[in-house]
Each structure stands twice: as C-alpha cells, then as structure tokens.
Amino acid sequence: MDKKALLAKAVDYHGHIGVFLAVGLRMGLLLRETLGGDGFNTQTLIKTDLKPPRSCLIDGVQVATGCTLGKMNIRVEESSDLMGVFTVEEQKVEIEVKKSFLETMKEKMVGRDRHHLDDLTEEVMNMEAEDIFELRKI
Ligand SMILES: [Zn+2]
Questions:
Q1: Measured between alpha carbons, how far is 93 from 43 in angstroms, rounded to an integer?
Q2: What is the tens place of the pLDDT at every residue in 19-56?
Q3: Which of 27, 51, 118, 136: disulfide with 94, CB 3.0–4.6 Å?
Q4: How close is the Cα of 124 to the center of ligand 1, in Å?
C-alpha cells in the first residue's frame, strides 16, 4: 500500500487527519522496513502522553503495523517520551520521536486549527525517517 492510501485508511479509522497520526504511520512503516514481521508476530508498547494530539500516534501505529488492541498485541504506557518499543520474534527495536522534531512541529502548529493540518500531515508523510526518529536496536 502506498503512503497516500495508507494515510487515507488511517484517517478513515481514526476519524480525522493529524500530524501525530502520520507520525504513528511512519513509525510503523520504519519498524516494518527494519524488522519486517506482521500484525501477528509483533508485540508493541507505545509510550506516550495519554491525551491527544500525541496519543493519536497510537492509531497510526495500529494501522501501519496491524498490531491492534483487539489482538492484545499493542499496549500503551504513560510517559513524557514519545516512542514505540517493538518486538518481532527475537528482535527488538526502540523507535523514539526526536525532541527536535517535536519542537519544530510544536512551533508549526501554534495558532493552527488542529482539524486543518493537512499540509503539515503531508509534510510528515514525506520527511526522511531520520529527521523524525531515533532508532535503536536493543
Ligand atoms: Zn487524533
């Protein structure tokens, strides 16, 4: 599925377009590029602030990885960090959203209506993964 179709699927699922929904999608895609796997052999732990917009990331990760609440292979833990810890069979990786990315997005979102962030969302979908995430194999 290309990025545009994936974003459309995520927006349909989540109910609105958003920057952190896109960050969740990119996180899930980066996991798949790095470790492969599927929605059945992956365990996901998301560490996030437990309120939108940051928590919107969770739905992006669910759509991109196939890990779902119903399958009990995604868990959420309250944290001031924003990251995913993923296990695919014996391999484990941490994907953290960079503080520099969060600062930049915060500045760009000032004064913006959070329901009309299509341009920023598209920007996130097309950024280099290295500009969004710090990836660590653990
Ligand atoms: Zn949202």
A1: 11
A2: 999 999 999 999 999 999 999 999 999 999 999 999 99
A3: 136
A4: 15
CA 15 to centroid of ligand 1, rounded, Å: 7
- List the one residue out of 10, 25, 52 whose CA is nearest residue 132: 25
Q: Which domain holds residue 90?
A: 3-137
3-state secondary structure 43-59: EEEEEECCCCCHHHHHH
Both tokens assigned to 111:
């004064």
Neighbours of 84 (CB within 10 A): 26
- The count of domains in the chain is 1
- State the helix-helix crossing angle for 118-126 and 3-14, rounded to 10 degrees: 130
Ion ligand 1 neighbours (CB, 5 A) are: 18, 52, 56
CATH number of the domain to which 87 belongs: 3.30.1330.130
